[in-house]
Write a structure and sequence with these properties.
This protein is of the alpha/beta class. The chain has one domain (3-192): 3-Layer(aba) Sandwich (Rossmann fold), CATH 3.40.50.300. Helix content is 56%, strand content 15%. The protein is globular and about 50 Å long.
């Protein structure tokens, strides 16, 4: 039976690195961010985003991502508005991909997505794994990865749930501040435990 695992955690904690290690061990990975990037380019979704966030977030039929991000992450209410438009579409596409992997007989499907449970996907998951890291580590990673100002990075961090939330909702935790080797060991152990669970 295919194990369906959710990988979650706050931005900059190291989810992508953990997902790569799970994939190396044999998990089939679905990146919710990549799914989201495709979904928001669909004409119907673009129109809804324009209605919610203004005509200027689309130029030449393409989404102006920094423009949308600036508006959507300005407040928790605006972020909720973005999620209400995009999450149902993202969820539908992720379920389609899960089904394809299950039909192909995959041992494990890992969904890498920061807001997995908030988007109502929890019912499909056999286990939730959270990647956590201290705020300074996360801040430095976000700055390197996204090329934004420290103020913008802190703004993004401030609208996310705290570590206690992720500990509460997850079955397993990975220390994203640990050395790469320590993280690999943690992930190997979690991978085996999940596969062996009935």
């Amino acid at each position: 039976m295919t194990k369906i695992i959710g990988l979650t955690g706050p931005t900059g904690a190291g989810k992508s690195t953990a997902a790569k290690e799970f994939a190396r061990l044999g998990a089939n990975c679905i990146d919710a961010d990549q799914v989201a990037r495709k979904v928001v380019e669909e004409p119907e979704c673009l129109r809804e985003l324009q209605r919610a966030f203004g005509e200027e977030i689309v130029a030449d039929g393409k989404l102006n991502r920094p423009g949308l991000a600036a508006k959507a992450f300005a407040s928790p209410e605006k972020t909720e508005q973005l999620n209400a438009i995009t999450h149902p579409r993202i969820k539908e596409e992720i379920f389609r991909q899960i089904e394809a992997y299950v039909q192909a007989g995959a041992k494990m499907v890992l969904i890498d997505g920061a807001v997995l449970l908030e988007s109502g996907m929890g019912s499909r998951l056999d286990a939730v794994v959270a990647v956590l890291a201290d705020p300074e580590t996360r801040l430095q990673r976000i700055l390197r990865r996204d090329g934004i100002s420290p103020e913008q990075a802190l703004q993004r961090m401030s609208i996310q749930k705290d570590q206690a939330y992720y500990r509460r909702i997850s079955d397993y935790q990975i220390d994203g501040s640990a050395s790469p080797e320590e993280q690999r060991q943690q992930i190997r152990k979690i991978y085996q435990t999940i596969l062996e669970a009935s």
